[in-house]
Amino acid sequence: MTGSETVLAELRDSVLHLTLNRPDKLNAFTEEMHLALRAGLERARDEDTVRAVLLTGAGRGFCAGQDLGDRDPRRGGPPPDLGRTLETFYNPTLRLIRDLEKPVVCAVNGVAAGAGANIALACDIVLAARSAKFIQSFARIGLVPDAGGTWSLARILGEPRAKALALTAEPLMAETAADWGLIWKAVEDTALMTEAETLARSLAAGPTLGLGMTKRLIQAAAGNSLEAQLDLERDCQQIAGRSADYAEGVTAFLEKRKPVFRGEREP
Ligand code: LHQ
Fold first, then answer.
1. How far apart are the C-alpha atoms of 118 and 99, rounded to whole Å?
2. In sequence order, what are the residues at sequence separation of 6 or more whose Cβ sits closer than 8 angstroms to the Cβ of residue 40?
3. Pocket test for ligand 1, best of 32, 68, 71 (most atoms within 8 A of CB)
4. Cα–Cα distance list, 215 to 52, 98, 205 (Å)
């Protein structure tokens, strides 16, 4: 196990497990924690031995967003520059998750509030414990949703549900989030980690180059015309078709056996 105490990092079966670890504060973000999570994601980006990421939280919560004790207004002084906080701490993390060409599984083990909810929603496959809830809590404290929340909520849910969640800050239970297509699925609390680990392990044993480009393609789709997307699919497939994992996948199919993918990042 490596990483600062506020984010635990452990590589097992090619899956980098990143666990937000301030359970007594429902894993609310401090600056130290931001940097530790970023270091974990950069490791996932840079090390070929990492072929998938599993993000979760320690204790009864997933993440309660920014640590509100960090900027106690009762201490006085000039108001904080939260735009700078976002640019310095949150936005790099969001970009790392989205740009990482490896699958990122998120196991939402309990409440996910504020930026904590939106970091979860930025991940590629989100599983949540049935008891978990997602709260766009920003309206309760006079802020706007951040960490990509307005982007993902509007895109995934459409304006009516996105606006209602953000304007009311009402909790959304995991099962409804799954019914609405906001997450992949809600699972029994006791089954969450086993199911998330099995999924992450199986993705980590997959054709990493192809999976990474699949993620890139799907993310590009909303901003592309059909023409542009067809071009991008062609270019990615050309690369995938030259990979050792493609040759192995076809050979294994013809030999009626399970493929053994090596997950090389270059064809
Ligand atoms: C917390 C927190 C927390 C500190 C629970 N901070 N201690 C970006 C740019 C820069 C600045 C501003 O923000 C942002 C993005 C954001 O994320 S803004 C949104 C920030 N988050 C929130 O507003 C959520 C605040 N938390 C809550 O509403 C509740 O704690 C929820 C609904 C998450 C959970 O409620 P409960 O299950 O009833 O737990 P609790 O409230 O009793 O919390 C347990 C402990 O965790 C407690 O500490 P204590 O020492 O009293 O036991 C809380 O104070 C602490 N905690 N969230 N964000």
1. 16
2. 3, 7, 9, 16, 18, 53
3. 68
4. 12, 9, 16
User: Which amino acid appears at position 163 of this protein?
Assistant: K
Q: Ligand 1: does its nearest atom lie under 6 Å from the Cβ of 139?
A: no
Cβ neighbours of residue 247 closer than 8 Å, sequence gap 6 or more: none
Place of tokens 């990474």: 212
What is the mean pLDDT of the segment spanning 60-85?
92
According to the model, what pLDDT value does residue 47 have? 97
C-alpha 20 to ligand 1 mean position (Å): 14
CA 112 – CA 119 distance, rounded (Å): 9
pLDDT digits (tens, 9 = 90+) for 204-243: 999 999 999 999 999 999 999 999 999 999 999 999 999 9
| Ligand 1 site, residue 221, Cβ cutoff 6 A | no
Among positive and negative, which fits the CA dihedral 117, 197, 45, 38? positive
> Could you give the CA distance from residue 260 to residue 22 in angstroms, rounded to a whole number?
38
Of 25, 62, 88, 119, which is best to mutate to test ligand 1, by the most ligand atoms within 8 angstroms of its C-beta? 25
Give the residue, out of 20, 26, 131, with the most ligand 1 atoms within 8 A of its beta carbon, to mutate for a pocket test.
26
CATH of 7-204, one of 3.40.720.10, 1.10.10.10, 3.90.226.10, 3.20.20.70: 3.90.226.10
